[in-house]
Amino acid sequence: MRVIKISEVKKNLFSHPIFTGSDVTTQVLLPDSKEYDFNVVNFGRGVRNKFHSHDSEQILIVTSGKGTIATETEEKVVFPGDVVIIPAGEKHWHGATKDSKFSHIYISRLGSKLTQLED
Fold it and tell me: What is the pTM of this model?
């Protein structure tokens, strides 16, 4: 058994064209997992990712701040303790509101494919 303290996991700048801004860091929680991508993603105020989909389910667990999760037909504001399950293939985006930073744990199947659907 292992206990991981998120506060002790190094934050790495994460620059990728899927984000609307550069204030994004990640914290890899299980670098040796053979089954899951399990990371924290930290968004600066107003930063979100662009519409995208995954070929497996994605689970988000909100850990701090206030964020928005959106599909083509709805938007929901989420807070620490909220858990979001995004079905495989669903077009969506998520990120910080304009007035708050936002962090969530991201869980998906290791090796799943992300497809960016917005420029």
Answer: 0.94
Question: Nearest Cα to 90, choosing from 119, 67, 117, 63?
Answer: 117
CATH architecture group of domain 6-116: Sandwich (2.60)
Per-residue DSSP letter, 112 = P
**DSSP output for 24-71:** EEEEES-TT-SSEEEEEEEE-TT-BBPSEEESS-EEEEEEEE-EEEEE
Domain boundaries, the chain: 6-116
Strands 24-28 and 67-71: what pairing? unpaired
Nearest of 73, 71, 78 to residue 100 by alpha carbon: 78
Q: Rounded to a whole number, what is the distance in angstroms from the first to the last CA of the chain?
A: 42
pLDDT in tens, the chain (119 residues): 989 999 999 999 999 999 999 999 999 999 999 999 999 999 999 999 999 999 999 999 999 999 999 999 999 999 999 999 999 999 999 999 999 999 999 999 999 999 999 99
58-65 vs 24-28, strand pairing mode? unpaired
